[in-house]
Amino acid sequence: MGNLFSSYSKGFPEDLNRVFIEHIEGSIITYRDLLDQSEKYANGFKALGLQAGDRVSIQVSKSPEVVFIYLACLRSNLIFHPLNTAYKEKELSFFLNDAKPSVFICEQEVSDKIASLDIDQLPSNIYTLLPNQKGTIHDIKVPGNHEVQDCPEEQIAALLYSSGTTGKPKGIMLSHGNIGSNAHALKEAWQFTSDDCLLHALPIYHVHGLFVALGCAFLSGSKVLWLDTFNPDAVVNALPNCTVMMGVPTYYTRLLSNEKLNKEVVKNIRIFISGSAPLLEETFDEFYIRTGHEIIERYGMTETNIISSNPVNGERKSGTVGVCLKAQALRIVDEGQNILGLDDIGNIQVKGPNVFKGYWNLPEKTKEDFGTDNFFSTGDKGFLDAEGYLTIVGRAKDMIISGGLNVYPKEVESVINEIEGVIESAVIGLPDDDLGEKVVAVIVRKDQSQITESEVISSLKTQMAGFKVPKKIILIEELPRNAMGKVQKNILRDIYAKM
Questions:
Q1: Domain boundaries, the chain
Q2: What is the average per-residue pLDDT within 21-42?
Q3: Do the two domains 4-189 and 400-495 of this chain adopt the same fold?
Q4: Angle (deg, nearest 10), helices 249-256 and 281-291
């Protein structure tokens, strides 16, 4: 069967009463609960009249219930569409207009204001997540057997949005085969077994927390220790009961700031894994000194899932993102698509069953990012060494990664430039000890305009997710430009690098 749920469930333990999720506060969810609850939701979706390919959009706080709904969508051949809870009304309106879901699951406060969104047509089924609320998704559950709907591996399983360089987010279509093949490769690369216990403090609205972390657990029949959010004290207290932790670099820098972190606390940990943003070599080194563990850094993106990883057994080279995973092809090319030699810096391209099917309703953009030989251009620049380890040196697409979350400058600039009193802006990423990079906006005001930094930030907070809002506004007379009139962001980054 090509259905991803069938692949996941083959990894479930024979004893379905084994614990899948143990919440940090003590509640338990077994593998039997996974089957039973996802079955009830799948029956509920069928009763609503949903057909294969219909979208189920969900914007709620992290909850095991989301896992049930995700699995129900897989069982039913529906497209799961998770959304960051930080998105504001303008952003949410775009996503719902573009995805056109048949079901939208959200927090009560969003449901109460749904009519105020700028949506062409409201989803026909709108629910809240928590039980006992008005219009709760729990009401759709129907007991009884549900036969998993078989499908080809090419069938779209999930739709995730990545902010676009043009200012408009792009829907990334991930198939059952994309997600499943990558989960199998990661389970093997990171040597997951049923004896593992994964510390899960990541959000589950993107690839890292949903497909990477949970996929490894599903396929190995292992246990997950569940935290609703990342909290350094809670993580340190939980580490002795776990064997694996996945996180973004910010998690590790914050753990290093916690005086309770020591070798005794992590004595049962098998591997620490970092991704979603570059891990600084000093973080790698300091973490090793404090804990005796070398963090495994890996590399991926929404469009490709995970591409490469440092090995469990073998040298973990700090500053690199390891070697290409099984069944994938990785190459470095110049602007003329010529393959470069070892240690030569160029554009990173990848090909394999993990690479997405294309952008939702954007065939021309899809064609642009795939070569004639079907290699996908990641937009990142890097080089390969003699042992096949990949080093990333920069991002061609000007993206900022702040706390593991992607921010595209163009999207933020387009909102800033609409503010009364602003002529133009340039958004850049600057180094930050905690976030890796912080978002900073350099703004040119109109003559006589008295708009202040706090006024700009206040305006942006009402229009976009908090992680995109600049931490600092710099007001200048004019932006530096080259002979062709292009804003030279490299100069701005150099000038303000030590802010």
A1: 4-189, 230-395, 400-495
A2: 97
A3: no
A4: 50
| Residue 161 per-residue DSSP state | E
Tell the CATH topology of 4-189. Rossmann fold (3.40.50)
Q: Can you tell me which residue has the tokens 């952003």?
A: 91
Segment among 434-443, 445-454, 457-466 with least mean pLDDT: 445-454
* Kind and range of the H or E run holding 91: helix 89-99
Q: What CATH code would you report for 400-495?
A: 3.30.300.30
Whether 53 contacts 97, CB under 8 Å: no
Fold assignment, 230-395: Rossmann fold (3.40.50)
Distance CA 38, CA 52 (A): 16
- Summarised one tens digit per residue, pLDDT across range 250-300 is 999 999 999 999 999 999 999 999 998 888 888 999 999 999 999 999 999
| Closest C-alpha to 286, from 310, 258, 245, 306 | 258
175 SS3 class: strand
Nearest to 286 by CA among 311, 309, 257: 257
Residue 408: the pLDDT is: 80
Of the two residues 488 and 286, the one the predictor is more confident about is 286
DSSP letters, 121-152, are S--SEEEESSTTSTTBGGGG---S--------
Tokens of 182: 């990558």
Between the two ends of the chain, the Cα-to-Cα distance in Å is: 54
Distances (CA, A) of 440 to 29, 196, 432, 453, 485: 42, 41, 11, 11, 21
Tell me whether residue 378 is exposed, middle or buried, using C-beta atoms within 10 angstroms of its C-beta: 0 to 12, 13 to 18, 19 or more.
Answer: buried
Q: Is the pLDDT of residue 154 over 90?
A: yes
pTM of the model: 0.88
Burial 98-133 (b: 16+ CB within 10 A, else e): bbbbbbbbbeeebbeebeeeebeeebebbbbbeeee
Q: Residue 44's closest CA among 24, 67, 69?
A: 69
The residue type found at 475 is L
Q: Amino acid letter at 339? A: I
Indicate the DSSP class of residue 384: E
Q: Which residues contact 498 (CB under 8 A, 6 or more apart)?
A: none
DSSP 214-273: HHHHHHHT-EEEE-SS--HHHHHHHGGG-SEEEE-HHHHHHHHT-TT--TTTTTT--EEE
Output phi, psi for 104, to 5 deg. -125, 120
